[in-house]
Design a protein that fits this description.
The chain has 376 residues and is α+β, with helices and mostly antiparallel strands. It has helices at 7-18, 71-80, 133-141, 207-217, 270-280, 331-338, and strands at 2-6, 32-38, 41-47, 51-58, 60-63, 65-70, 86-91, 97-102, 105-110, 127-132, 158-168, 171-181, 185-192, 203-206, 223-228, 232-237, 240-245, 264-269, 290-296, 299-306, 310-317, 319-320, 325-330, 345-350, 357-361, 364-371. It is elongated.
């Protein structure tokens, strides 16, 4: 193999694929990136056996071929080369060494055989549909903060993606719904069901896959093709294909934890509320991060106390017409949710100090958040 490629193009693609590669690997080939050159382009692939990213980039191919090279080392070398430089990649002889030349710099990297590189992307994925980059970004951004990091409840370590029906104006509308929960909070976001997605299975997309896709979405063209089966999902856009195994588990019946009898309603400016929570929480202990909300007609008082640091209170004007009540929340969780509210107003639907609270954007009915209270 012998190719010449622009540094910027190589760096961009290497940056995408090498982020999949774990820093510590017991299987040497998983530390490498697969390089294949033919027909005027270089294909790069990396995998951790659960997630695979393949990307193609234009290159001047003098001699087609392929090899695998250490992913992080190759990325660091290319990153440190001067802007605007050309990079030559050359493999000759038995293919055990990759020679990289750029200007007066030359590097030689040990390679492993192409045949040792595992393939994840094979197999037919029978369900396919397309979404816009903006819609996928919305589903991911407004749910991923609630993904559980508790490994024992592995079925909560991802976003549950499925087709559902949403009540709107007295009728049922088909929607594509994303749900994430860690047991303390729940995020449910939906968009109109794309054509071809009506028969998709309910799947749990792993946290790592969600985070890698989110990094790539910002550079993606508007249309993203999604294909899935019972155990794999694939995202395709521009010259990138991301294939991932799905979490093999059953997502809990999340509808059961969304309260239906909450009868107290508070509306507040989301940005003012978030800023006030952030200020008051400065006093709360690092362990509990507790903030108390005290409601009376038209007024919300936020407070926090700590045996070491002291106390803090702040008042806000709110729209609230029910009787007085007090409820405590984890301030970090409150901030995570209010940061997802893009409109000016946040609507809290409450029952009592011990029951879950629903939080919504006043002008956007596609997202719903549930937050469990805590004792304060």
């Amino acid at each position: 193999m012998n190719i010449t490629i622009e540094r910027a193009a190589l760096l961009r693609s290497l940056g995408h694929v090498q982020s999949v590669v774990e820093r510590r690997n017991t299987i040497p080939i998983l530390s490498n990136v697969l390089l294949r050159a033919k027909d005027g382009e270089l294909s790069l692939a990396a995998t951790d056996m659960d997630l695979e990213i393949v990307e193609s980039v234009p290159a001047s191919v003098a001699r087609p071929g392929g090899t695998t090279a250490p992913a992080h080392t190759l990325y660091d070398i290319v990153r440190k080369l001067p802007d605007g430089s050309q990079v030559e990649l050359d493999i000759s002889g038995d293919g055990a060494l990759l020679t990289l030349r750029s200007g007066r710099s030359q590097f030689r990297l040990s390679c492993l055989p192409v045949d040792d590189f595992p393939q994840l992307s094979g197999g037919e994925l029978k369900h396919s549909f397309a979404v816009s980059a903006a819609d996928l970004r919305g589903l991911v951004d407004r749910t991923r903060f609630a993904i559980s990091t508790e490994e024992t409840r592995y079925y909560l370590n991802g976003i549950y993606l499925h087709a559902a029906r949403a009540k709107s104006g007295g009728s049922d509308l088909p929607v594509l719904r994303a749900v994430a929960t860690d047991g303390h909070r729940l995020a449910r976001v939906e968009m109109p069901l794309p054509e071809g997605a009506d028969a998709i299975p309910g799947v749990i997309v792993p946290r790592k896959t969600v985070n890698e896709i989110r990094k790539l979405i910002d550079e993606a063209a508007d249309r993203i093709e999604i294909s899935m089966s019972e155990n794999k999902i694939r995202f395709g856009f521009d010259s990138v294909v991301v294939t991932s195994k799905l979490i093999d588990g059953t997502f809990p019946d999340y509808e059961r934890v969304i309260p239906v009898g909450n009868d107290k309603v508070m509306e507040v400016d989301a940005k003012l509320f978030a800023a006030a929570v952030d200020r008051v929480a400065t006093i709360s202990t690092e362990k509990s991060r507790a903030v108390k909300l005290s409601l009376t007609r038209g007024t919300l008082t936020l407070s926090a106390t700590s045996p070491e640091a002291g106390s803090a209170t702040e008042e806000l004007e709110v729209s609230y017409q029910d009787g007085p009540m007090e409820i405590g929340f984890n301030s970090r969780y409150l901030l995570d949710i209010t940061q997802q509210i893009e409109g000016e107003g946040a609507r809290f639907t409450l029952a009592d100090a011990a029951s879950p609270t629903i939080i919504r954007d006043v002008v956007d009915s596609t997202a719903l958040y549930v937050l469990m209270p805590m004792r304060v």
